[in-house]
Amino acid sequence: MLRTLSLSLCLAVSALALPPARADVAQPGDDPQIAQAFDADQRERAELPRQTSQDALRSFARQLALHDAERRVAVQAALREQRLRTAADYRKAATIMQHGQTPADYLIAHALATIGSTLAPDDRELRWLAAATTDRWLLSRKQPQWYGTQPVCDARATPPTCRLDVAETAVSDDERAAAGIAPLEELRREADARATKLGAQLGASKSP
Fold first, then answer.
1. Could you say which residues form the signal peptide (predicted)?
2. Which pTM was predicted?
3. Residue 91: pLDDT above 60?
4. CA–CA distance from 96 to each of 31, 56, 93 (Å)?
């Protein structure tokens, strides 16, 4: 069941309500190995929209899971060696760990995002990551998410669906805003739009 959930989350990655991308130039003191692993994580995920059939998505997800596991090993080594020092290190390491497959991965990701936020309280991406890792942990425990950052898409459905199961009273829209997240109703509309986009992506392979 957890493997199925992880695959669903993988298929949803390209459509997540991520904060606006920013130029991510390494600064003195940033760990170069973590920066390299993060860059590889982002480059690989950028290829997800190009997978235009269910077979291609499955193959992509298998390879992505293997590479994600290698990147998590790099983060764990950095933690053991106490190489994470800057807010950027913690943000990148948290991003890698939140692409894990187990509740323990998501707990580590949440801790990293939280530490990063203490170093850079105004960093919107770190606040978003703290919320997103909470949602992923809850989903991995078969609980509804709180913030609504993780639409779970089913590419096997006809048409594809993107579900957003949220404990509606867990957090308010004001708390979402503080974490850089849109109001819940907007998130639901975005999930519907993602399902439509996924359907168009997979439908491209059926075009004459």
1. 1-23
2. 0.84
3. yes
4. 14, 23, 5
